[in-house]
Protein 1
Amino acid sequence: MVLLSILSIPFIAAIILLFVKPEKIANNVAVAASAITLALSIYIACKGAANFDASWMLSLNARFTLTADGLSKILMLLTSISFPAIFIATSKNQVKNRHQFLSLMLFAQTGLLGVFLAGDALLFYFFWELALIPVYFLCSIWGGEKRVAVTFKFFIYTFLGSLFMLIGIILVYTHTSDQSFAYASFKAANLTSHQKITAFALFFTAFAIKMPIFPLHTWQPDAYEQSPTAVTMVLSAVMVKMGLYGVIRWLMPLFPDAFSAHSNFVVILSVIGILYASFIAIRQDDMKRLIAYSSIAHIGLMSAALFANNEIGTQGVLIQLFSHGVNVLGLWIIADIIEQQTGTRSLKEMGGLAKQNPTLGILLVGFAFANIALPLTNAFVGEFLMFNSLFQFNPWIAAAAGVSVVLAAIYTLNMVQKCAYGEVSEKMNKMQAPNMPAQFVLIVLFIVVIISGVYPAPFFDLTADTLQQLFIK
Amino acid sequence: MNAIIASALLGVLMMFASWIFDNEKTHTRIALAGLLALIVANVLQLNGVYTVPLDTKGMLSFTQFGLYVNTILFILTFLYVWLNGDEIAKIGNHAADFYALFFFILCGASILTSFNNLLMLFIGIEILSIPLYILTGADKKNLNSNEAALKYFLMGSFSTGIFLLGITFIYGATGTFQITTPILNPATGMVKEQLMHSAGLILIFVSFNFKVSAAPFHFWTPDVYDGAPTVFTSFMATIVKATAIIAFVVLFHSQFKALGYAWDLLLTFVLMATLFVGNITAVFQRSVKRMLAYSSIAQVGFMLFALYGATSFATEGILLYIMAYSVASIGLFGVLIKMKEYSFEAFNGLAKKEPLLAAMTTVFLLSLAGIPLTGGFFAKYYMLNAAVQSGIGLWLVVVAILFAAISVYYYFKLIQAMYFAEGEPAIYEVAQGYKYKLLVFAVLILALGILPNLFLSYLYF
């Protein structure tokens, strides 16, 4: 039941918000709903396995099944942390029709939580799409200048991908012994090896577009740039994880042979993507685009480590799923504060943040270190394991991917330097009093970064069951 | 049987209603009452309570499926009249005349859902079609409407001829009109008869493609849908088309396997062509009404997947499909009627002026595009599942979803106009009551999308 309430609280709050116009109340409702969700998520994460099961579509034999194992819990936690953080951090931003905005955000949260908790293939597909629709409206209504075209590209891309996945689901479904969508039946589906490869390809397309893996990434930088920052945060902190989640939850256990047969191909694509995104990030002057490309590079590393198909890499990814979300969220919030107060995203026009607002300057440096995975930050744990696994997979590939660490240091530190240090620029002079709620969120997130970097053991414990299922049969 | 008799009687009754009552509102009320009576009569037979005892010598057979389809069609018509009553009254002099035609169409429809004999099929199709020619030309002073009616009539008669020729061939080969006769077995060596049988089936197939506007026999559709008064387009594109599709599916689930491999090829060609023409052409339309005409062709492409095999997915799926498609389309046309002009630009800024109306239009469009949580998703899902199950090859399904993705483009163009474009929408004043009526359609779509079982379980009791 707790699992069901995790889904229904944001959903009900979203419906209520459609009718609550005053900004203050709307804000409070959204924060309260997401905070309760967070509390429940933490409760579930501590409690052990949780399940919910109800009949849904009899003739199709699809059930409304929610399950929470380590993988689900990690992403559930990430989602539940991100949303209140976003709501509080952006509470001072000017948004037209805020109640509708918040309502759509909460619908998106419902969809995302559903994706991570669904234990039934059809339900998974349902939520997969449901997470997309509110985001489409959020970006198209509140986004930047080119929002409609860019968001549409994003929508069509991901929609097409998910349709491929739908065919994959149908293909597996028709070959299950009991004609059901249950996860266990899908795992035991009786497919020929040829069909497995087809189904693998269909599922993979959907996940690859979502992550995104080179060369399917073209929707992402534009979408990140044009979305309102609150939505960009959702997109890059949580939504891209849907693709990685899909790989761990569905691709690896369902089609293990096809998975290992294609791992070379995907790892190489991912590494190309990492290097490509890193080089572009170096050339970026727009802070939002820089973070977007840096995010592509990080996700690329995660997909490479996943497809290296060994235990250590998967462990790294499981931890990095959470860490990357927190880190990128912090960077976005800082970028958003700067943009809101100075009106610019161009690094050339920045400088002297550390003088204008020392706290923010320090936080920027802190999250930048986390972004390049320095020891003591949370990303170090995950990246270390992931590089380890890539090395086991193929030293040359590990070496190529390793270049990205250097590149990440270049573009991240370059950003810090241009933004935080130097003379106070004309634009930076406009910085007003610190945005207290946002800084509060940043500090909390930074504490999470440090704690999970110094003491990651709880995350290892949390994900132990997922790993065991995947690698010890 | 109940439905056929009741609808015919009610049609005649409606004709006299315009003679007795002057008020057009009264006509609408009588029609609604008549439709209710029709639904009751049909449900009585569906539940096995009472059936008019009439021996049809096996020419009609009343299956659970057919009777349930009847119920759906009647309820859809009821909802349609309930929503559009005022608009129908605006056209022509006597609304009752049109209602009479609706009842005759429904009479044809009830025959088409229960035929067991090619002659009955033919009669059903004719009873269904002839009132349509009149409805298309109902706006007598509008040249487009006249042109559309003539075009429809000419093309329709032509396809009727082809249909009759097909029946003749089949009769020649098998010596009977019954569709339940065993199909000619290739092993018996009656080569000439087999050839005739196949030729007959192909001719009927062609004619049916015309009726459901599948490519390459779709050319009449955009002009007729565009020329006809919008209220009647709404009726033709939904309830009538649904009936034709059902008859198509019923006939070919029983007969077409005789053609073997060649049949799959033929169907695949038509299906691909329909998806291609419908979707690609819809992308380039400037008028929403024409876009809907092409989209209705595209949707038929998906419905044709039900023809590949008589699986439970195919029969349940086609039911869901006609429900989801009809409800969404009637709703969309209901919004369209209220527009002063039909261009996409006319919808600019609708979300600001009429938020509820825009939200409901979005639900209808999402359903047509097949997005989860709306009825259209399960409709498409069942069709794809039926296709995969029949083993026709996954590539066809992949191509179909590529077209589904294209369809998102033109459906979302309207959403973009409503929500993201600035402007003053060219819309007439919409009464609050009308919006609530539309809300019923939107809720139905969502219900179909969340609990389709609610609508399918009736099939088995």
Protein 2
Amino acid sequence: MATRLPEVDAVCLGVGLVGTLLGRELTRAGLKVVGLERGPPRHTVPDFQGPQMHDELRYAVRKALMQDNTKETVTFRNNAGQTALPIRRWESFLPGTGLGGSMVHWNGQTYRFQDTDFRMRSHSIERYGEKFIAPDLAIQDWGVTAAELEPHYDRFEYLLGTSGKAGNLKGRKQDGGNPFEDPRSRDYPTPPMKEPYGSAMFRKAAAELGYHPFPQPSSNLSQPYTNPEGVSLKACMFCGYCERFGCEHYAKSTPQTILLPILEKEKNFELRTGCQITRIHLDHSGRHATGVSYVDASGREFEQPARLFIMGMYALNNVRMLLLSGIGKPYDPKTRSGVVGRNYAYQTMSAPKVFFDRSININPFMRSGANGTLIADFVSDNFDHGPHGFVGGAYIGEVMTNGRPIEFHPTPSGTPAWGSAWKKAVVEHYNHTSVMSVHGSSVSTVYNYLDLDPTYKDAWGLPLLRMTFDFHDNDLKMSAFITEKAVEIGKAMGARQVEGTPRKGPYTITQYQTTHNTGGTVMGSDPTTSVVNPWLQSWDVPNLFVIGASNFPQNASYNPTNTVGALALRAAEAIVTRYLKNPGPLVST
Amino acid sequence: MQDASRRQFLKTAGAAAVAGAALPAASAPLPAPAAKAGTGARDAYVFFNPQEARFIEAAVARLIPLDDIGPGAREVGVQNYLDKQLGGAWGAGERLYRSGPWKEGMPSQGYQLPYTPAELFRTALRAVDDDVQKQKGKRFDALPPAEQDAYLTLLQKGGKDLGGVPSAVFFESLLGMTIEGYFSDPVYGGNRDMLAWKMIGFPGAYAGYYHLVDQHGIKFEREPMSLAEGVRGDVHVDPDIPADGVYHDGHGAAPTGGDHDAPRGGGRS
């Protein structure tokens, strides 16, 4: 029998980035907030300290900071004709768990999506005509513009302390920044990071080819910084243990380093860790949430009633929790109706290798999760797609993050996988190879979606989420076109040899690509094609806000975290200034 | 010739305290090099039985052989790494979703066998031993290197059923774990004396390279650092300044915990 707890004003489901941001905004507005986090509490000291944190086997290979597959995983198939099977170990993507969520192990790559991304369908039709978009693509507009989101991007970047160089200040182009970005109200809070060797060679080669290289915006800071909340961060040391690791240096912007020290002292905020949420309860009307059930680390069941619910779990888990709670109509690919689980998308990646002579010491281990140089010439709609027959794009960058040798020991194709010849090739190329990133968008389609698995269960006996996903030809064409451009840049870097293989289907969960799982609780202006309105409020249950990359109707060329943060702050503002005064739908239907 | 080069390696690696002065003939299993005191890497197996150990020792020595480029997997103790991993939580299925039903699935769906790593190795190693004895009339470790390579290639290509374990799956696990043991921190039992890191020039667990990252093309020649050294190890431009976790910022030593101002000085003063 579950213990029923006293009602509170608001519950944050998950205390990662979203739970931390909303916890802060809601307690500041005077609400009493409970944060429910399934994983353990974690802090820079003592949990992320060196040298123990610098353990490739434990953290990068065995994935110590990630959601434990023995308790909870996802099932996967490429298409609805196959039987989905459980992802028994994470490889393709890595959902985190614990206080701070997946942002603890992010790389800090901090981009703004472009206005053309937020209006992908309408913009594509305006420029190329309706027929240009393949009929089985489900791409749609977000219901928000870049201009509307700008103040929130700005606020979030100043909270993070992001290091970079503006390319467009209030409409005026700035030398050295990204010339394709939409206007920003002010420059980045801290200057760009130091430029590593491979990135410098990339910059020169890209500029010679007529492209527009700029420093990667980074939330591994270039210098010490105190954010508007009064929390101080330090400068990145380029240790090469960033993604998949916690930062020992207080240099990576995470909930722990930007806001949690304030929130954890807030008397109106109560953090409960080790709490696995199993369901959101609705009243008889089915349009009002009354509480959440959870099981604590010792197996005791609780029900926490509240008046307002902020769902900020990992994108995939947001979708699953709505399905488990019976909130919103699940998407059915046969009838193409329903919304929950609709428009799952990912990222279309390739990684050309640039092999240099042994006289060139790349020193791949002197890197950070977000450092280096890239071009946006092929991002979004920054080039004419007319001749190419695809929508979307990719950035090309020399943005290596590490030289950890279990996973990083590049060899040219044709090298045997073992034996003396393999070893010789590893020694010859380890310190003399640069790897580029072709970081591409991912369209939503009518076939790719998320629902509950009919067979496999988690440790609490609840159905796992089922992912049905494969790459659409649109994205494979995009990857082929842009990977070729990357190879040209690699050759211009003075390489001995460049190898670039575009992304090929079928999608496989056996190879790491990115942890940028998007969609499933899509935002939009039309309740028949979205789960939440442009303020991230559930169309069906107005006292529930669902926030995360699950709101993206399709995924853009850039990394998602900055957009998640900006959307979360925009939702928080709407809740505080509008919803709390008059609880109910913020958009009438 | 192989033994000669191994002997030479053991000598130069300063780990020649092997039982008996002379190394045995090629047909007998080689005794492992003794570990440096305190690193605990002597081959005292907790998981492998003697028969399994002979295969593992011989196989890892072919997957990453000793040659004039550097040490092989055997010399740096990869067999110990495998033994500890398979005998511990990883072998027992740590972080592995283990509920049925069990179906073969598509390659894109990844590993779908019911075996834990320990079960997978135990099952496959028994089948391999039977198979080699049946075909060759002797054990794997007694075969000449060329025949060992040919047999490993056969496993790699797949199609062989090792008591229920597809040989390609076993080979992939064996090779993957061999590379892990070769390049992981020595605290896990392989990469003894950080010899594999030294070979490729990976510095290990240092706390950062802030002062070096913009010295493009610099050759990093400091000794690598292991977790076992227990210091943070900030690296400074001046090689005379030790990477010892003491902050040379003019304010005396600071404890660990990140309460330091960075970027710090400590350059060429």
Protein 3
Amino acid sequence: MKRIFICIFFLQFLVVNTAQSGGYQVSLHGHKNMGMGLIGTSLNFDASTVFLNPGAMATLSSKYSFMAGISGIRSTTKFQLEKPSIYQAATDNPRSTPFYLYATARIAENLSLGLAVNTPYGNSLKWEEGWAGRFLIQEISLQAITIQPTVAYRLSESISLGAGFVVATGKVDLKRKLPVQNESGEGEVNISGNTVNYGFNAGVFFVPIPDLNIGLSYRSLIKMKLDKAEAVFSVPESLSYLFPEANTVATSLPLPANLDLGISYRFSDKLMAGITLNYVFWSAYESLDFDFEINTTALNDVQSPREYSNTIIFRTGAEYRVLENLFFRAGAYFDPSPVNEIYFSPETPGLNNIGLSTGLSFVPMDNLSIDLGFLYVMGIEKDISFLPANFNGTYKSRAYISGFGVSYNF
Amino acid sequence: MKFRTLIYLLSALFLISCEPEIEAFKPDAGEADFSVYVALGNSLTAGYANGELYKSGQMVSYANIMAKQMIHAGAGEFRQPLMKDELGFGNKVILGEVSDCLGNDILAPVPAGGTPDPANFTSIFSEEGPFHNIGVPGAQISHLLLPGYSLYNQYFGRFASNASTRVLDDALDLDPTFFSLWIGSNDVLGYAISGGESGVITPSEEFKQLYRLILNELTSKSDKGVLANIPEIISIPFFNTIPAHGLLLTRQGQVDSLNLLHVGNPYITFRLGYNGFVVADAASEYDAMRQLEEDELVLLTVPQDKIKCEGWGSEFPIPANFYLSQQQIIEVATAIEAYNMAINELAGEFNLALVDINSLLKESITGINYDGLNFNTQYVMGGVFSLDGIHLSPRGNAIVANHFIKAINSKYGSTIPKVSPTQFPGIIFP
């Protein structure tokens, strides 16, 4: 156990995630799943079920199942100021590396225990230096690592239930430029903090007839609350009295609940395919507030509306067994933007996304599977506004994600 | 073999471009021809700021900002009579931390110091001219038509084509295909910034006549151009920073002794809290002194140490050249209103674009959001005006340039790109 915790601690400093789904949700929870358009809930391949649908975990055929994987995300968002203008800017995001670790064990005939450690939410965005929106956001990194102990029970041949308790550790770090400057440059505020919050994950896995899987799973809202985040201001000396040192700020960000309903069917020995509807309760993100411990005439509390809407992501994917030990996968999804048309802030430029994915699994020996996954996400160009600051323009994004995982069952 | 095909397919995925591209906006001149753009005006057009005309200020004049944007719609070179350095004629102020008479550290405009390059005072026309930015600090409307004006105004003298030329001639000599004209502020400002003690307000009929003369000559070269109206002084920090009722009395003792001092003057009464400053007013029936009404305006140039430590505005009257009375404010406002009506009419008559700078600045009083920044007309912190409280900051110039561009685009169907004010510097704090 100790080793796992050391591992988590270490990864927390390594991992930086990027929004891949609508707002700041990252859905890379297994590379078989990733290859199939992230259909998730109706799959019961491996230990990733702990996260994707705890109910499915009880249906795994092997007694023990382990899985680990990592992805690399390269993403860029481009911005064009409202026309007529020729001003464009782009993000220069650091490459981010979400990961997962899953383990399951059947401890009684119909009872399984599992543990998931992964990164279901995150956002890492760094706009180019001096860009026009720097007073709204220069750089943001939001990382959430969740740890989820889980139990699942197989009620009958056709129905299994599972639930897990989610411990979410979050880390937020954001930088904004301030419109006060001296000879050496512009002022800046850096807000950073850590928090631990809780939620749950539950699922039902239903196999009404052989070869047909139906999954229904729900992950609860987790409110990432930072009560005393550090607020460090760097401003011209003559204005430092307006931005006191050792100030703190209270803020919070909801990690939205998800309700997934998926169905997959094994058409033959070689081919299986599925579709999933993924309902994301984004409306929980009403506003982004910053409540400073010490206010001054130049430093007021901020209540910035976001007014996100709930979205339904449509996903589909298929797996084809090419050779005895080689599987090919492909999938696609449409993930509509949850972001409000008039409160579209460049700190989370969530567009309507189309995801195209593919993947491979190689099974060199029984019980061992090496999985590769690739995902290409196109954020569809959109003219949009952030009215509170009258910051308007066109956004477009691309993300390219590749990764691999290993699963071992025995 | 299937396996190999798959590998090829997957490697191809690595090669998909990750860079999103948004199609670049393609500006267009519409019905206008920006190939020779000439900007005619006063200090605002020249790029005067912080009490002086200097190189980096000229680079961010609204005229230069606009000319650079016009290049995308086919404009040619826009030459400015640049000063050689950051000091110009030596009157520039910067923001500094100083101690006031009470020993408090305060932020205030202080002389920039340094010695200006002597070349700033010599004629540069033969070497660097002709110039497209013909903004002359201090120029009133009649000065544009005055032969030999360069002898009276060294700012023009240094870049005039010859000693006897008119400002307008130097503009016409370039054969402009497009012009901008923003003139008239100095026809009231000379009067207003002296507290009504010197200078005269140009009569509005004369203003309109001269304006028409200028447009007759300009439109003989180019029938396309843009005019801008005059901001009301209420939106200018020079006039609205120090409140008329700015005398704060916190102790009854102060109130009593001041009342005693002015006993018998029916126009002066003090009470706890904020009081009108005591000012000199020759028309006042008692002691030529009275207290300011709340809607009267104290000028930014009033020596604040004298108020804080030497009893100005309380024991002794603030001299008349540091405030505008209700009557004077009405004179100024009436003139500006008449000028703006004239400009509006002439824009229609000559079929030219019109920029409503007056409305823009009035909207800015309560604050406007623009490209992620908030601007207002507050002194120093508001972001629109420079430290002299009259002329624009670089970001203020960018916003004004955008309003010119908007007016031109809508009149002539052009699509000159706007600028983002965020790409221009703000006020430099110590």
